[in-house]
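re: that chain from earlier
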Amino acid sequence: MTRVIKIGGRPQSAASLPDVVARATIGDERLVIVHGGGDEVSTLQNALGGSTKFVNGRRVTLAKDIEIVRMALSGSANKRLVSALVQRGVSAVGLSGEDASLITAAPMDAEQLGFVGAPSSVNVDFLQLLLSGGYLPVISPVSRNAAATTNSESLALNVNGDDAAAAIATALGATELLLVADVEGVMSDGAVVPRLTPADAQRLIDNGTAAGGMQAKLQAALAALTGGVQRVRISDLSAIDDLSRGTLLRRIGELS
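^ sequence. v structure.
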């Protein structure tokens, strides 16, 4: 069983996170962690005199913002999480999508989003090498820009963590993609929606019920299902331990 877990920025502040992830590494399950860190990026942007803007749950990223995103995600957020996991005895290895062209991306919508990318390929052989060696890859979603020239200032693209996790889960043929947020799942009238078909998820996106970060999560979930991932869940940190928690999405004919 291979599981890809994307951990959003806010759940990373939970004191229980390293222990929860450490428990998930016990046994035969192969695990890959992808992390976000949006609040940390925003804090650094603001401290350096920049501004923060989102379009449909994705951060508008100017050329001058790339180094900020690298510092916040591939630097402090990644190494802080790796250090905490190593302290718990986990053989965690910190990476970004730029390392060994782990994630190559293409500009998504340069006019609206700037240097934001959509994953186009994953160096799955590199991931398999780490996993077969017993390592836990912990991945920042900052990715290599496939459209950049050698001397370009935009050699990297800011890729949404949910999109990166979906691409990695697809490339690995993962059993499950778990998108960990600061909510228990997709909510309706104050309650968690236990199951969604792909059509249900698309309808929530189209009618605006799922907006911002949840819209991005559902779009990533649909991409993963289309790519062959067996199941996707959206939930909170407790869902790493509890495989029945949150909102479950499966491909048509497999929702049970």
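Residues 2-250 form a domain with the Carbamate kinase fold (CATH 3.40.1160.10).
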